[in-house]
Amino acid sequence: MVNLTPNAVSMLYNNQTPDGFEPWLQIIDTKKIKPASGAGGDRYRIVLSDGTSYISGMLATQLAPMMENESLKTNYVLQLKDFLRNEVQGRRILIVLSIGDIVPAFDRIGSPINIEGAKGPSIPPAAAANVPSAAALGARPTTLAQTVYQQPQAHDPNVRISDIQSLNPYAGGRWTIKARVTTRAPIKNWSNARGSGKLFSVDLLDAKGGEIRATFFKDGVDKFYEMLRPGGVFYFSGGKVKMANRRFSSVDNDYEVTFDTHSEISPAPEDGQISQMQYFF
């Protein structure tokens, strides 16, 4: 039997993983999550344990077939090859991007506790490890506070609102979308031979259920990070659409968008037309 990697969950949670870190973890709970809007494919919540602690995560879209064909099951042990740490509704989760070897198992290893204490999901006991959590998929999501530094602005009625699904690199840059920030990743600093900088990303959802990831670099981080709180609704324009690297995104869209300091982003009124993205952790 493969040994689980000691202290792996704490290292993942606190973003203290060394280069090449590929821990062995056990799946102790899974749950299918249907998009609140009904658009897009099913997603899967996954809870991973190192035998001492556990952490919640989401499988990237391209890994969903592994759940559907039962390559992954509760109590199976896997090697985590690639991942991102993200913040969802004020909590830290993993986005699982790539999985290596998988070892079938039938018993839970150890008695892991939630790395986040009382904030995180309660996991069924080992004897009932396959029982999903009790949250109903149709439950109305908790409203998130929208903290912004500007009052919502009246939208120019002469400017057409585009659907996220209509965005592509060939449509030009003259578009405006109205979208809710469903997740916001922490600021990341980077450095290489060409220089250094920082970036962060947000996932956006519109009234038609379309989703897209938006990334901000350097001065755009300073300008927009504090404004774009999860749960807030905004008008976005002046971004550049490009092909997405699906290895690094759990968003169901072939494209992503980047914004800079010349982009226009302003708070929009909360009219209830855009659902809250909820993962039911």
UniProtKB/TrEMBL annotation:
Domain OB, residue spans: 175-256
Gene Ontology biological process terms in this record: DNA replication
One Pfam family per UniProt: tRNA_anti-codon
GO molecular function: DNA binding; zinc ion binding
Lineage: superkingdom: Eukaryota
Record flagged with keyword Zinc-finger: yes
Stretches of the chain forming a coiled coil according to its record: none
Alphabetical keyword list: DNA-binding, Metal-binding, Zinc, Zinc-finger
Domain Replication factor-A protein 1 N-terminal: 4-99
UniProt similarity note: Belongs to the replication factor A protein 1 family.
Name listed for the protein in its UniProt record: Replication protein A 70 kDa DNA-binding subunit
